[in-house]
Amino acid sequence: MAKREILILGNEDLYRECEMVSKDQLDQAKRVAVDLNDTLDVFRLEHGFGRAIAAPQIGASIRVIYMRIDDEDTVFINPCMEVLNEEIFELWDDCMSFPGLEVRVNRYKAIRVMYHDLDWKIQTEVFEGDLSELFQHEYDHLDGILAVQRAIDLQAFRMKLGE
Ligand SMILES: [Zn+2]
Known about the structure:
Blueprint: H1 26-47, E1 52-54, E2 64-69, E3 72-83, E4 88-93, E5 101-108, E6 110-116, E7 122-128, H2 129-142, E8 157-159
Antiparallel strand pairs: 1-2, 2-3, 3-6, 4-5, 5-8, 6-7
The protein binds zinc ion.
Zinc ion binds next to helix 2.
């Protein structure tokens, strides 16, 4: 498999809602997961950030998220997200589809996620704090929503120099 090109802000495909993966499509989802891994590796070398990537960012319109947590990689297929309470927090968010730009957003503090793993087993995960906001960012990609659409107001943007 291979590193693939990351779609950049402005590409219409980033605004499309992704399709659920059926069990028959598991092999296809696995191939996409390998490409997500390779693409994430190269991006991290080039940009020094990036902890997760969603399938639509490499042009695969399926509900798959690839997340690197403490050097361990998890693939989420057809994730469902449940907000555990109404507590929110504000942060500067970034995205591999617009490196250099940061946007101020609100995210939920704690969520529970159910998903299929690569063996099609159902798994559950609870995320809090930075992993919670990271997952919500990636989950939005599956619904065709970018962090810029979550900006808290019109001054919620800044450029990071040195990218
Ligand atoms: Zn993103």
